[in-house]
Specification:
Length: 94
């Protein structure tokens, strides 16, 4: 009788420890992947952007709307269009 209870407790403890190790492993994997993506983006010259969301509880489904910095018209740069000269004819490789 006592052997069964101890054995059941040990099985539960082992299953709990395996689940805990698995969950911690998944968290570490997500952290490493996120960190590697940020480092890769910075090395490539991209700036990682954080997505921000505003939740309005008065709206249906929480009123998820995207919130971020507004575009300032002073930051928009117009460029002068110029015509690209035609390329010289290519060799026929057929």
């Amino acid at each position: 009788m006592i052997f069964r209870r101890v054995f059941a407790f040990l099985i539960r403890l082992v299953v709990f420890l395996i689940g805990t190790i698995f969950a911690i492993g998944l968290l570490l994997l997500g952290f490493v992947l996120t960190l590697s993506f940020v480092v890769w983006a910075l090395l490539r010259g991209w700036r990682p952007q954080v997505q921000r969301f505003k939740v309005d509880p008065r709206q249906p489904f929480g009123g998820f709307t995207r919130r971020g910095p507004a575009v300032d018209p002073a930051n928009i740069v117009d460029v002068e269009a110029r015509e690209v000269p035609t390329a010289p004819p290519r060799l026929d490789r057929s």
